[in-house]
Amino acid sequence: DGDPPCAGLSGELCGTAEVLYNTAASDYRIIKNLHITHVVNATANWPDAFPNRLRYLRLRLSDDAQQELVEALPLASRFISSALRAEPAGRVLVHCSAGRSRSSAVTLAFLMEHRRWSLLHALRWLKERRACSAPNMNFLRQLLTYEELLFGSKITSLNDILVTSCFMIVDRT
User: Fold this and answer.
1) Which of 12, 52, 102, 148 could share a disulfide with 96, CB 3.0–4.6 Å?
2) What is the largest CA-CA distance in the chain?
């Protein structure tokens, strides 16, 4: 996620969840205008910008080939789901450095778990709403594992993802 942020500030997802990059996640005017109440901070070192005003889940993920992701996904999904079910309903921001890899991976896991979508379906849906989404190859492989854990069998293969060309694969290894 060291690349410049993708064009556009955010893409509204799931009705009340957003994916942004660090600069936007640190601008309280943007946060307030989007009515954000909860934040999933998927960066390794970026501090929580407004800890006294928003609820945060800190995942401390690195965007590399060694980062373990699967263990963090259920926690992130529960946090997002709980925020969206709150009364009044919360709005969740999922962010990383550029809004491409880590935040997309967390959002995809949420879509698979709570919408019961295959990884391929979730990828297509996310890509339509946030064209710059591109989890690294390590995260894609772990999302395939997570899909199998959720559904009890393999539904999507890495080849399915590569053949459909629905996703720009970024390998940061």
Assistant:
1) 102
2) 45
Residue 101 domain boundaries? 11-164
Q: Which of 101, 26, 110 is nearest to 61 (CA)?
A: 101
Rounded to the nearest 10 degrees, the angle between the axes of helix 119-129 and helix 137-151 is 130
Chain-centre distance of CA 44, in angstroms? 14
pTM of the predicted model as reported, rounded to 2 decimal places: 0.84
The contacts of residue 23 (CB under 8 Å, 6+ apart) are: 5
For the cut 70, the answer to whether the pLDDT of residue 169 exceeds it is no
d(CA 161, CA 144): 10
Question: How far is Cα 7 from Cα 122, in angstroms, rounded to an integer?
Answer: 21
The pLDDT confidence band at residue 155, using thresholds 50, 70 and 90, is very high
Token digits for 151? 């559904």
Amino acid at 10: S
Q: How far apart are CA 114 and CA 15, in angstroms?
A: 13
CATH code of the domain in which 37 resides:
3.90.190.10
Please give the tally of structural domains in the chain.
Answer: 1
Cβ–Cβ contacts within 10 Å for residue 68, how many? Answer: 10
User: In the prediction, which pLDDT does 6 show?
Assistant: 35
Catalytically active residues are: 96
